[in-house]
Structure formats: C-alpha cells, structure tokens
Specification:
Chain lengths: ~525, ~260
C-alpha cells in the first residue's frame, strides 16, 4: 500500500511538473469533470449544480463526516472551497488562504499577508468568499485590497498587486473569477463612498489589463444620472463573483448600492450603474449592456447576487438567459445576449415598490423611503436574498434560493463625506423575532413561479447546492445542515453542526466517492457515504 | 468674511448651537431609541435614562460608545452607523434626560419585598441566588427595566414577554414562550421554549423537566404567542400591594 502511494506521488509530481493543474479549458468543461470544483459557483454559468449522483434521495440519510477542519481565527466564514487534484483551497477570515489535503483535511500550506492594524473595513464584516484557481496558481483578494497570486502547491507568493487604496475604503471580500489568462475581481466599500469598478489582471504577471468603473465620470454615458459631483463617491461596489459565457464571450457582474446608501439628497437621478447587472467584454471591460434593477436606490438593494446563466424557452422561443433573485425582493429573467428584460416576479414580501413596468423598471413607493424617524419596509436590510449563492438545476429547471421574510426599519441620517469613514447616510434595523422566518424556495427558473418551499426558523444566510442526485443542500443560522428533495422540498437528512452556516456547499469526489463540503461556525465539514 | 461670521455666531449663540444639537438628538432618539427607552427616556423594556448616573455610560466617551456600538449582549442593538455630528447630538440629548427627574415610583420597597415573598413569586424567579428557575431572573431587574414595564409584567405578563438577545433561543425571538406539543405517540407536553432550530425544539415543563423533540416526531407544535406561563396577578395583587411590589423590583440593582 505504501509502495502504491509512493508510485502515485511520483506520477503526480511528474504530471504537475509538466502540465498546468487547472487550465482554462478545464474550467470551461467543469460540468464534464464533477470530481473537482474549479470555480466559485462550480461552473462559469454559476449554477452551483453538481453532476454527481452517488449521493441521492434514498441514501442521503447515511451521510457521515469524512473530516473536519477548524479554522484558527475567529470571525465569519463565507468561503466557497475550490477542489482540484487532491487539494482543497479555502480562505479563512479575514484574509488567509489555506490548502488542505483532500483525504484528511490536514493543512498543506497557509498564507497570511501583513494586514495593517488600521485597515478600513466599513460596510460588512471582514469576510472572504474564497480563491480562484488557474493553471498552477491560486488567486484571492484581501481586506487591505490586494489581489494575491500564490503557487498552488507551495503557497509561495507569485505576485501581490494593490487593487486600490484601502485608505479610501476599498477592500475585497469576493472570490476572483479566473478566465482565459485573466483574473477578474470586484471590490467592497460603497459604505465608505468609494467609486466602484471591476478590474481584470494578467494571471501571469498581476498587471492590470482593464478597469471598468461602475459609476461613469463626466461626459461618459450614464453620467447624466448623477447630480453635481456625487459620482465621485457614488458607490457601486462589486463584491460578489459574477458569471461568464465563453460562447458569447461576456462576463456578467452585479453592482451594489449608490452612496450614501440611505440619504439620496446629493444624488438625484438613476445613479447608473449602481444596483445593476453589467455584461462586459472580457478583453476590454467594455460594457456591452446593462440592466438596472433598482434605479435611484435608497434601501441598499445591491444587485450583487450571483447571476445564473441557463438556456430555456422564455416568451415563446429558446433563449440564452441570465437570472437573479435580487436583494430587492424580485426574481428577474433577462436575455443575456441583449440585456432585454423578459420577466420578473416577487419572491418574498416586499413593500417598497408597486410592481414593475413592462421593461422591468420598478414603481417605487416614495413613502417607503428612509426617514429620520424610521420607515418600516419589507424586506429587511439584508434583502429577500443577498450574496449567498442560489443554485439552478438543469435536471429540474428550478432555481433554488434561501430567502428571508422579515421587515426592517430604514433610517435616513447625515452624510458627510470624509475619506476613509462611513458614508452611509443612515441605516436599517432588522425586525428580528418570531414573526420573521426564512425558507428555501424553488422557483420555476423561467418565471419565478413558486414550486415549493421549505421553511426555516429564522431568516438564513446560507448558500445552496443542487445535485444530479436530486438533492438540494443548505444550512441555517442555528447550525443545521440538511438535504432536501429537489423535486418536492421534503427534508431527507439533517445534522446540527453547532455554528451558523453562511457559506455555500460544494461537491466533489475523494477516490471516486462523492463528498459534500460546507462550513458552520469556523469549521469546515466534509460529508460522504460510509 | 465667512470666518468672521463663524466667530460671531460661536460667541453670541453658543446656547442656540446647543439647542440645535438637542433638537437633532431628540429626533434621532425618537426614531431609534424611544421604543425601548421611552419617549422622554422614562424607560420601558430598556432602562430609564432619567437618572444622574448611567451605569454603562459614566462619561460622554462611554455614552458615545454605547450609542455607537450598542450593548448586544444586553439586548441593545447597534442600530446604524452615525456620523460624529449625530453621535454628539444624541449624547447631548441623552445627557439632558439624565438631568430630568425620573418618574417617582409610588410605594415602599420594604413592603414590596414582603408582597413578593408571600405571593409565591420566588417559586419561579431567582433574586440573588434564591428561588425557582422557570421564569426570568429578577436580580438587578430595576437597573434595566422601567417601573411601568415591571407593573405591566405583573398584571399582564403576556404583554411583556422579553425578547431574546444572543445567543439562545436567538436574537429577537421571544424568551419564555409557552408552547404545547403533542408527539405522534400521543404524549402531550406544555412548557416554555428553551431553544429551537428548524428541525428540533427544547421545552421545559412546569415540573422543570427538559424535553427535546424532533419536529417530525410531533403531530402538534403550538407556539402560544401572546401568552405567558406566569399567572395574571391583577386580581391577587392590587392597590398599594402592587405599588409596593413595583417599588421593590424597581429598587433591585439600582445604585443609590
């Protein structure tokens, strides 16, 4: 046995010495190799669907932990693991990258950059959602707003690029998206009045290839949608990984709220391209089309939810579409070639808009705007959905989303711009309590029509994974991890993991046997059949 | 020119500036604080602020920190981010409340203690380590609940069910929520919810027995929102006895 292992190692070394570990074409063909998990949402279409079916409805109740990895730092864990060639790559809060042996969970290497003591992180906890992998290198962003490339086998730094100035409030929580030779990354910081952007970097050198501002400057298209100088600190952060269509050669990336969030006095107009989905040419960053879900947002309705790509018949013909369960409470389906609005439907209780017009533009209720004394609005500040990954199953044609049914009170406050300080102009209070609840909901992906729901005690922050085994995996704030029947929503298995599940599950194989991984609290669990 | 104007206004109108802060602070307080602390800081579910010394905020720096960050483990949330100007205005306003004389609590704490003892309260409540554990501990309750709230908790307990703070049973969930469950095997249990998740519930019955159920094993799970296991005492404790009991509870934990 020992001899065999040594042989395997020798072969492995020969292979890794001569060939790229995860070439671009392997990510393009991710669905054809479900033994690994090589990009944030599993495939470029961001479907977070595993083609593996070894774990299925009839045997899922036998799931057992294979191993557990306990992270060393306190904090909130939102990482989505990457799995390739016997290694799992994760990030730990706030900005550590770690490689784990896939058989045992034993760390192989770990890397933590020097984060300044006075690092500015305003607008979210200091989280990280994971690494990207391309060829022999892993990439991730940090809270001090660097993009770092590490050798995948040793964790040694290949390059370390400053994306932008943390003193202005820029920081990174998103996992990068690796495409052919390029690393695409977005930033956080709209609550500090940054001007948002999406960047692409050369994967080999770390040199910036292009930057697309999400808030246009004077004279650029869309600049007329800002009052005065408000564009300079207009927000529009880009803090969740987008999706990619290699055939159309378009990258899809969501943008966040305008700044200041809850005080709109200085920013009359639609505030393009905040709260929007951008379709960009990956060669140049040029915006091919945009769709703004919430023009002139005053509730923090970031459109930084994961945009899922699939092909289906909508409005009478087969189309390439992109869909999103937006933080604002509506589920949208757009034509991803043109950006044309196809359909939308509310998927949680919402009281901020009187529906949408034929082009998908909302009719906002101005009485729902934030006030100094507070305004009660559904959904609460975290939205109906948010950064936690949805899942789309090509088998069922359903879009799965962990949803929040909760009211919030929105306050308007002062907004004085001062570099590196909060520029939020108010805030929100959530109406926690027994009246609030959550649900995993399955919608018909082409319409948003509800097929089933599985209720949760409190509003969740969990990602979901659907599988060819007919299952949907998800978590809960109270620590439950569970598998639902993808057709009916019936719970088939659950286990208490002892800490909130706030990361999205992934699936892969160890020695040919299917596993499912998820974090709870500050631990990472891997489950398989005995 | 502008500098001159600023100097003049500072010299002549310091009181006006202070009044501006006061009014701004009052508006912010009404929106975000009054639900728990009362419109004029008289308290309620949260502490009365009409007192010269706030135990968590002995100076302005500490008060600023409390308003900015909340006291999450005591149920005071960090509601939102504030600018320095807003924080200053709220500190000015809250300090003005501390100079207001608090509502006088009628009744005698000493007599109230006797009412407490003869009414059987201690069978369910602990004060300074003594008593039963089915209801909330009352040691120091006067420091964080106002008299009106305590009075309501006695005569109409279901209307004053405390909302939970982190971590159990969960932020904002009702604590001491009465529940009734019936298992598929026919066993019926009534008691209070100790904890719950999406798949299980933990219940303590009136005999202090803990029960843990998987929800799929239950045929009935009733959360009796709007009820309390505490008896409604308005017929048994009234008049001066009630005033005395409120005075006694209000005195607990208050530094003179």
């Amino acid at each position: 046995m020992r001899t065999l292992r040594l042989h395997a190692l020798a072969v492995f070394a020969a292979v890794s010495g001569g060939f790229a570990q995860v070439p671009y074409q392997r990510i393009v063909g991710a669905d054809g190799n479900p033994n690994t998990w090589v990009t944030y949402s599993g495939n470029y279409q961001a479907q977070r669907f595993s083609q593996l079916a070894q774990i299925h409805r009839r045997n899922v109740a036998q799931l057992k932990p294979a191993w557990v990895y306990q992270m060393r730092n306190p904090g909130i864990v939102e990482t989505s693991p990457i799995v390739a060639d016997g290694i799992m790559y994760i990030t730990e809060p706030p900005s550590t990258a770690t490689a784990l042996d896939l058989h045992t969970g034993r760390p192989l290497w770990t890397y933590t950059p020097n984060i300044p003591q006075d690092v500015i992180i305003i607008g979210s906890p200091p989280v990280n959602r994971g690494v990207a992998i391309l060829d022999n290198t892993v990439f991730y962003g940090t809270v001090h707003c660097h993009l770092i490339a590490l050798d995948a086998k040793s964790g040694i730094v290949r390059w370390d690029t400053v994306v932008d100035d943390n003193k202005k409030g820029y920081y990174i929580t998103a996992a990068p998206l690796a495409i052919d030779g390029k690393i695409i990354i977005g930033v956080s910081g709209a609550e500090t009045g940054i001007r948002g952007f999406v960047d692409a970097y050369d994967a080999k050198t770390g040199k910036r290839l292009w930057r697309t501002w999400t808030v246009p400057g004077p004279g650029e298209p869309g600049s007329e949608s800002w009052g005065g100088q408000s564009w300079q600190h207009g927000g529009g952060s880009t803090w969740v990984t987008g999706s990619y269509d290699p055939d159309l050669h378009l990258v899809y990336w969501g943008t966040g709220n305008p700044a200041p969030d809850w005080n709109d006095d200085t920013r009359p107009g639609d505030n393009l391209y905040t709260c929007s989905l951008l379709a960009m040419d990956p060669e140049t960053g040029k915006i091919k089309w945009h769709f703004q879900f919430t023009p002139h947002d005053v509730h923090d309705w970031d459109a930084t939810e994961v945009p899922i790509l699939f092909d289906a018949e909508v409005k009478g013909r087969r189309r390439k579409v992109v869909s999103m369960a937006n933080r604002n409470g509506f589920y949208y389906v757009l034509d991803r070639q043109t950006g044309e609005f196809l359909t939308a439907a509310p998927y949680v209780k919402q009281t901020w808009a009187d529906g949408l017009d034929a082009k998908g533009r909302p009719f906002p209720r101005r009485e729902a705007d934030p006030k100094v004394e507070g305004t009660l609005v559904y959904p609460a500040i975290a939205g109906g959905a948010n950064w936690w990954s949805p899942s789309y199953s090509p088998r069922t044609g359903l879009f799965y989303q962990a949803t929040r049914e909760m009211a919030g009170v929105y306050f308007k406050g002062d907004a004085d711009y001062k570099e590196g300080t909060a520029y939020a102009g108010g805030g929100g209070e959530t109406k926690n309590g027994d009246e609030a609840y959550g649900a995993v909901r399955a919608f018909e992906a082409t319409s948003g029509k509800l097929r089933w729901e599985f209720k949760l005690l409190t509003p969740p922050l969990t990602g979901l994974l659907s599988t060819a085994g007919g299952l949907v995996f998800g978590g809960a704030e109270e620590g439950n991890f569970y598998a639902l029947d993808a057709e009916t929503g019936k719970a088939l298995w659950d286990l208490q993991l002892g800490g909130a599940v706030r990361s999205p599950p992934v699936s892969f194989t160890i020695d040919g046997k299917q596993q499912v991984a998820v974090t709870a609290g500050t631990s990472l669990f891997v489950f398989g059949l005995p | 020119m502008r500098h001159v104007l600023v100097l003049i206004s500072l010299a002549v109108f310091p009181l006006a500036a202070q009044n501006g802060d006061l009014e701004k602070g009052r508006q912010l307080f009404l929106g975000m604080c009054s639900r728990c602390h009362g419109a004029e800081g008289g308290g309620g579910e949260g502490p009365n602020l009409n007192r010269p010394v706030l135990s968590r905020a002995p100076d302005d720096q500490a008060l600023t920190a409390v308003i900015r960050d909340g006291i999450p483990d005591r149920g005071m949330p960090r509601i939102r981010r504030f600018t320095d100007t807003e924080l200053h205005a709220m500190v000015v306003y809250v300090r003005s409340l501390s100079r207001t004389a608090g509502a006088v609590v009628a009744g005698s704490p000493e007599k109230g203690k006797a009412v407490y003892q003869r009414s059987g309260c201690s069978s369910c409540h602990i004060i300074d380590g003594e008593g039963g554990n089915l209801g909330p501990e009352l040691s120091g309750v006067g420091a964080h609940r106002a008299a009106d709230y305590l009075r309501q908790a006695i005569v109409e307990p279901a209307a004053a069910l405390p909302r939970g703070v982190m971590p159990f049973p969960g932020r904002g969930l009702n604590e001491f929520l009465p529940v009734r469950v019936v298992t598929r095997g026919g066993q019926e249990v009534t008691g209070i919810r100790v904890n719950e998740d999406s798949f299980t519930i933990q219940v303590k019955d009136a005999n202090n027995q803990l029960h843990s159920f998987r929800k799929t094993d239950l045929q009935t799970l009733e959360k009796e929102t709007g009820k309390s296991l505490m008896p409604d005492l308005r017929t048994t404790i009234s008049g001066t006895d009630l005033d005395d009991l409120v005075a006694y509870l209000s005195s607990l934990g208050v530094v003179k």
